[in-house]
Amino acid sequence: MTVNTIAIIGTGIMGMGIAQIAAQAGIQVLLYDAKSGAAEQGRQSLQSTLEKLTAKGKFTDEQLQDILSNLTVLQELSQIATAEIVVEAIIENLDIKKQLFAQLEGVVTTDTILATNTSSLSVTAIAADCDHQERVAGFHFFNPVPLMKIVEVIPGLSTQQSVINVLSDLAKRMGHLGVVAKDTPGFIVNHGGRAYGTEALKILGEEVTTFENIDQILREGAGFRMGPFELLDLTGIDVSHPVMESIYNQFYHEARYRPHPLTRQMLVGKKLGRKVGAGFYHYENGQKLSAATAQDQSSEALISDAVVTSVWVGADLIEDKNQLVDYLKSQGVAIDDNDKPNPDSLVLLAPYGEDTTNAAIRYQVNPKQAVAIDMLTGLAKHRTLMPSLVTQETFIAQAYALFGKSLDDSEATTQPMVGATLISESIGFVAQRVVAMVINLGCDIAMQGIASPEDIDNAVKLGLGYPYGPISWGDHLGASRILLILERIYGLTGDPRYRPSPWLQRRAKLDVSLFTQQNTY
């Protein structure tokens, strides 16, 4: 099918975003909204945006006029009859969407493709009462549409393959990557994004550290664009929490998607985030207010009191031990090479999926001397330090003095301080838990055949702005290391949310890429 004309039903932010990229691609766009005047208002708003972009040199005046000429406001729904594709971008309400699709079938030809921009509803359910279910599909964009270069193309149970082909080609024509996903709760992106916020909330609920510290560790250490609590505040608890509950319920209370009571309390208490000036953070004029943490205030005292005699290093991976020893030597620190640490040596442990107490017992060292460090992302980024329940203050101070600074003090004037965060004991560190859960969930999505590993990776990276897609991230860090984290956390907690995906287990044990697909017979 050659698509010359598409109709957009619903001219809010999402609808007009889709209209913009279609018009920019030279497609005639018909705009309709049931609310009187809304379609014209949407067009005027888009024109204003395009004029600003033209003033910045993004378009020429001629290009601007061409784009605007592709936008036509309709007064009646019956006027969409000439469109080859209709894209619905109205309220996320199943009954209302089904009513609209019944109306559309009475207007368009039998060849017209009917697409829904739903983010959380079943495409099959939306199409259930249609006379021609085979031409209904999901076409899920992300906000802001012109910048988020990804769209999920979702067949319902009855959708013809030709419809998926047309929508995938249309996505490419509009400058977006179309990824095909099964009609399952959350599709790819909203499904794959469940691990980030829910695991961060669980860590906060265990009082491992503050939400500010969790954001900092995951942003500066793991490389996420935004911390999970910054993201929840930006999206709005009134948007995020219902999605968490919806996916949890649709998967029949699968432990991996378990929401946290805190966001339900915040929803009830109207602490919705940036839009109301208060969520996890407080805001003035839309800007986050930051306050010095107790750890910031005490760090100077910790460092000034520290006298490092020697350090004994225990690490699960030889490469981690070598990196730590090299770093310590570069700081002029003596390495305790004895089989058992000297009583005055700082015991530095680099475990995966454990707290410091369990690691100290496994290494048969005195937990009063022990501080653990997260080596998942190495030393070049923000470091996380975890004393045991009984670690003496003098050893905590030594560890903080050693790692709460840049790799090379001579570079301090040209490079920012790397810094370190002290956390309370946790079965697995902050970054280990969150990153392992993100990767494990991506593997589970692949195992369920919701999309190809490549499409899962691209969709999550582009749709959520993660530093890596979950599949390539697992390969980058090492599948066996991620498996070790999850196996230990699962073994120590018994919580089924941490059980390793069979997709991850097989590939880690065979030492092959997580992109390796199963043979089909």
What can be said about this structure in brief?
It comes from Psychrobacter proteolyticus. Keywords: Oxidoreductase. The protein is about 45% helix and about 10% strand.
Description:
The two termini are 33 Å apart. 44% of the residues lie in helices and 12% in strands. The protein has three domains: 5-183, NAD(P)-binding Rossmann-like Domain (Rossmann fold), CATH 3.40.50; 191-208 and 211-283 and 434-464 and 498-521, N-(1-d-carboxylethyl)-l-norvaline Dehydrogenase, domain 2, CATH 1.10.1040.50; 295-422, no CATH class. Residues 407-416 have low confidence and may be disordered. A hairpin with a 2-residue loop joins strand 9 (282-284) and strand 10. With 521 residues, it is of the alpha/beta class. Residues 5-184 form the 3-hydroxyacyl-CoA dehydrogenase NAD binding domain. Pfam families: 3HCDH (PF00725), 3HCDH_N (PF02737). Residues 186-283, 428-509 form the 3-hydroxyacyl-CoA dehydrogenase C-terminal domain. InterPro entries: 3-OHacyl-CoA_DH_NAD-bd, 3HC_DH_C, 6-PGluconate_DH-like_C_sf, 6PGD_dom2, NAD(P)-bd_dom_sf. This is 3-hydroxyacyl-CoA dehydrogenase.
